[in-house]
Amino acid sequence: MPSEVKSYRIIAEGEVQGVGYRRTVSRIALDFHVNGYVRNLSDGTVEIFAQGEEVDIRNFLAAIKVDAPPLSVKNIQVREISKPSKIHTHFQIKLGTVAQEIQEGLGSGQEQLINLNKQMSGFRVDFQDYRAEFGSFAQRTDQNFGTMDSKYGEISLKLTQILETFQKETAESRAELKKSVDNLSRLVDEFIESSRKSSERQNTL
Question: Which residues are catalytic?
Answer without folding.
Answer: 22, 40
